[in-house]
């Protein structure tokens, strides 16, 4: 599925216009907190703990990084969440654990702040922001369990519609494709689904799912609207059918660590994991019929990021791809598929740098040296003996996990994880 030759670009080595002054302000090397692609995969924005946000542009079908730009102080605090407007590939919003939301517009070689507004109250601490899939609404989440929804149908206008107050700790939320439902991952293994009626306006609980006993710390809705994936504190990744609302597959044998983040990419029907052509240059989301979904999974501690397919056997099969560099640094490891090409993945490494992984070519542009990434393919003769050992190890880990669960019961129920985008700040437990 993935090319046998894989190259990487270290984005932090690009000639950002003001990066030198930013380095001088920060005593140590700035670390990547979060990163996100725009809707057509031509721009990537990522934040650093020196309060900066950096934007890199890529040519369609090629990964020559151009127009590197930097916002020196995007907020008064480091930016913890970035999201691009799906209607306009040059516009994005940011929040930074304060009460304000900033809207930015990229034009040519410049980026400027076009709107600044408050969400969830004057003293709120907002940690997540997301546009609906059609760009008609914007949701802003705070650490006290509030989600405020804004109407964004008029350019540069953010009209507050309604505020949802959750009764449990909010870890992450996402929109469905129709942009009329919000899924919220909460503590104690619960996902709540809310229906939005923007005409009245009103919002009400549609369904509450008890998927596990552990906190669900990450959630991602597939763009085809057929399923969503959740990651838990007890190392599970569950794939849930969005229509039947039942778990159709669970990945929990790879390592015994809390899941950090999950990303999903629906595969076009002609590129299922069983019959993918290796010379196929790209896989896009233009085909609505899909036969499987790719999962990019990161973990909270020392384990590298991995890519699985929902076509795989979660017990017997190894990951399709292992990104050895994508491990936690000061902040949580994140891996995001390019929305137009599943072979291109943006991630942060254990040194805090932001990188792009893409299929191997004759060399890497921008003067970067090639950084090989280990690839593991099912059925490969060279991995046969190692695969057997890894399967035995996975089974032993599973048995040990089951023994521990039997012994300890649900002792995790009252615990609270640190938010995925800022591991240094613990959020208060709600009553």
Can you tag this structure with a few keywords?
4-stranded antiparallel beta sheet, 28 strands, mainly beta, 431 residues, single chain, globular, Methylamine Dehydrogenase, Chain H
List the helices and strands and how they pair.
Elements: E1 6-10, H1 19-25, E2 32-37, E3 43-48, E4 53-58, E5 65-71, E6 81-84, E7 91-95, E8 100-107, E9 110-118, E10 126-131, E11 137-142, E12 146-151, E13 159-165, E14 170-175, E15 181-186, E16 190-197, E17 202-210, E18 216-221, E19 227-232, E20 237-241, E21 247-251, E22 259-268, E23 290-299, E24 305-309, E25 321-323, E26 335-338, E27 341-348, E28 354-359, H2 384-408
Antiparallel strand pairs: 1-28, 2-3, 3-4, 4-5, 6-7, 7-8, 8-9, 10-11, 11-12, 12-13, 14-15, 15-16, 16-17, 18-19, 19-20, 20-21, 22-23, 23-24, 24-25, 26-27, 27-28
Biased composition (Basic and acidic residues): 367-431
Family: Belongs to the THOC3 family.
WD repeats: 72-106
């Amino acid at each position: 599925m993935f090319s046998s030759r894989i190259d990487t670009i270290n984005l932090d080595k690009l000639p950002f216009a003001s990066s030198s002054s930013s380095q001088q302000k920060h005593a140590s090397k700035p670390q990547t907190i979060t990163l996100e692609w725009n809707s057509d995969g031509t721009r990537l924005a990522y934040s650093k703990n020196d309060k900066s946000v950096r934007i890199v542009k890529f040519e369609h079908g090629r990964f020559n990084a151009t127009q590197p730009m930097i916002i020196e102080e995007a907020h008064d605090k480091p930016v913890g969440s970035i999201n691009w407007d799906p209607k306009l590939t040059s516009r994005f919003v940011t929040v930074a654990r304060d009460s304000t939301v900033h809207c930015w517009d990229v034009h040519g070689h410049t980026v400027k702040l076009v709107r600044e507004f408050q969400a969830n109250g004057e003293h709120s601490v907002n940690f997540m922001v997301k546009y609906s899939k059609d760009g008609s609404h914007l949701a802003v989440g705070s650490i006290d369990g509030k989600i405020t929804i804004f109407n964004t149908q008029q350019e540069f206008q953010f009209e507050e519609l309604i505020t949802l107050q959750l009764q449990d700790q909010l870890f992450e939320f996402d929109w469905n494709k129709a942009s009329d439902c919000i899924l919220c991952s909460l503590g104690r293994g619960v996902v709540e689904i809310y229906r939005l009626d923007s005409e009245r306006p009103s919002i009400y609980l549609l369904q509450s799912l008890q998927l596990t006993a552990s906190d669900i710390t990450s959630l991602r809705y597939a763009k085809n609207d057929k399923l969503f994936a959740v990651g838990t504190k007890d190392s599970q990744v569950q794939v849930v059918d969005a229509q039947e609302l039942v778990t159709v597959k669970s990945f929990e044998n790879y390592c015994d660590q809390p899941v950090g983040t999950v990303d999903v990419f629906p595969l076009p029907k002609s590129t299922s994991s069983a019959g993918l052509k290796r010379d196929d240059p790209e896989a896009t989301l233009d085909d609505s019929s899909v036969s499987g979904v790719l999962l990019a999974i990161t973990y909270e501690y020392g384990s590298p990021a991995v890519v699985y397919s929902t076509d795989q056997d979660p017990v017997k099969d190894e990951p399709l791809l292992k990104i050895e560099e994508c491990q936690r640094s000061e902040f949580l490891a994140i891996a995001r598929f390019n929305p137009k090409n599943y072979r291109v993945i943006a991630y942060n490494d254990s040194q805090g740098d932001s990188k792009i992984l893409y299929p191997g070519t004759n060399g890497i542009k921008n003067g970067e040296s090639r950084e090989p990434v280990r690839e593991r393919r099912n059925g490969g003769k060279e991995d046969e003996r190692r695969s057997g050992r890894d399967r035995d190890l996975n089974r032993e880990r599973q048995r040990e996990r089951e023994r521990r669960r039997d012994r300890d019961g649900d002792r995790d129920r009252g615990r609270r994880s640190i938010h995925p985008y800022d591991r240094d700040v613990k959020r208060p437990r709600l009553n």
